[in-house]
Write a structure and sequence with these properties.
The chain has 13 helices and 9 strands. By secondary structure, the protein is of the alpha/beta class. It folds into 2 domains: 157 residues, Rossmann fold (3-Layer(aba) Sandwich), CATH 3.40.50; 171 residues, Rossmann fold (3-Layer(aba) Sandwich), CATH 3.40.50.1370. The strands form 2 sheets. Strands 7-6-5-8-9 form a 5-stranded parallel sheet. It is globular, with a radius of gyration of 20 Å.
Length: 341
């Protein structure tokens, strides 16, 4: 190995400069290059010691969170991250009732106006078309981070899931095999974002779903454009899922969970199909015995009874709650890199 010109003590400001995404939106994870994603993760590692403390990298900066859909983890973690960075937060968690959207203001106008108050915006919206609308506003607003748009993209969740895998499995995505398993891949925005990020970093991806609810074309086209190493299988039994995990050397199983609200008939259909995606502690132990691997299992949360075996909570396989511990550092990294330190 040879010494590099950059050898020396770690400097968080130089690291942020090296990442080079200041001022940019985040709509899909593949908006960022492999190198940019790697630097976001390196920044997050440097910020982990401060996720419950304070490092004033964004003193005087203001984050606006605008959420047209309910959220706990995404909104709170971004707001906490901004506070830990020394910045401030303004928030709108019910725009259709308590903002000018209730009076008919367009989303475009709202984002342009909000940009006069804030330095960065995290936006969640139920409409897929928002992705194109935000892209069309380039240069008219401050940077906008997707906190989830429609059914297809939730890049900050995808980044968190990637960072958890990065920390759990040693950082080399090219050596990882990940299964994304859900009855409904068509509305699995967190799983699809995770998949795009994995593809960008060179991981092997296995999508497991059901016929008629496959991965959307917009995601499939992006995967193909990256020459991603991915396959999609449908209608497997739980025993076949477990067999495939062992035979393919899967390291990590991701369960996007049900994004359909209570009262929607689609929710009942989703939960009816969960039997063949219901991973158990016993099943994971059988996989370990056959393959020699401790397979990590995670879920996008919130979870519902019947989605997987809650006995996994206290096992070595559990990563869904552990990932929450990384969420503030990861979002501190994203905000610092986008705002600039």
């Amino acid at each position: 190995m040879a010494l590099t010109a950059g050898f020396g003590p770690r400097d968080i400001c130089k690291q942020i400069e090296r990442t080079g995404i200041k001022g940019r939106n985040l709509i899909f994870i593949d908006d960022y290059s492999q190198e940019e994603l790697a630097n976001i993760f390196k920044t997050a590692e440097m910020l982990e010691p401060y996720y419950r403390n304070r490092i004033p990298l964004l003193e005087g900066k203001v984050l606006c969170t605008q959420f047209f859909q309910p959220s706990t983890r995404t909104r709170f973690s971004h707001e906490t991250a901004m506070f830990r960075l020394g910045g401030n937060v303004i928030t709108e968690s019910n725009p259709l009732v308590s903002s000018s959207a209730a009076k008919g203001e367009s989303l475009s106008d709202a984002l342009i106006v909000t940009s006069e108050y804030a330095d960065v915006i995290v936006l969640r919206h139920p409409d897929d078309a928002v992705a194109d609308e935000v892209a069309s506003l380039a240069g008219k607003t401050v940077p906008i981070i997707s906190g989830g748009y429609g059914n297809v993209t939730h890049p900050t969740q995808g980044l968190l899931d990637m960072y958890t895998a990065y920390r759990a499995f040693g950082g080399d995505f090219t050596k990882m095999t990940v299964m994304i398993a859900t009855p409904d891949l068509s509305r699995a925005r967190s799983g699809q974002s995770f998949g795009l990020g994995l593809a960008r970093m060179g991981a092997k991806i296995i999508y497991a779903g059901t016929t008629g609810l496959e991965t959307p074309d917009v995601i499939r086209d992006k995967l193909k454009a990256m020459n991603a190493n991915f396959t999609e299988v449908n209608d497997l039994t739980i025993a076949q899922h477990e067999e495939m995990i062992a035979d393919e050397g899967v390291d990590y199983v991701y369960l996007p969970g049900c994004s359909v609200k209570k009262g929607d008939p689609g929710r009942d259909e989703f939960l009816k199909k969960m039997a063949e995606f219901y991973f158990t502690l016993d099943g994971l132990e059988k996989i370990e015995k056959k393959s020699g691997k401790v397979v990590g299992i995670t879920h996008s949360l919130p979870r519902n009874a019947g989605e997987f075996d809650f006995a996994i909570d206290e096992s070595k396989h559990q990563l869904y709650f552990k990932s929450i511990g990384f969420s503030v550092a990861l979002r501190m990294s994203l905000l610092a890199n986008i705002c600039g330190a």
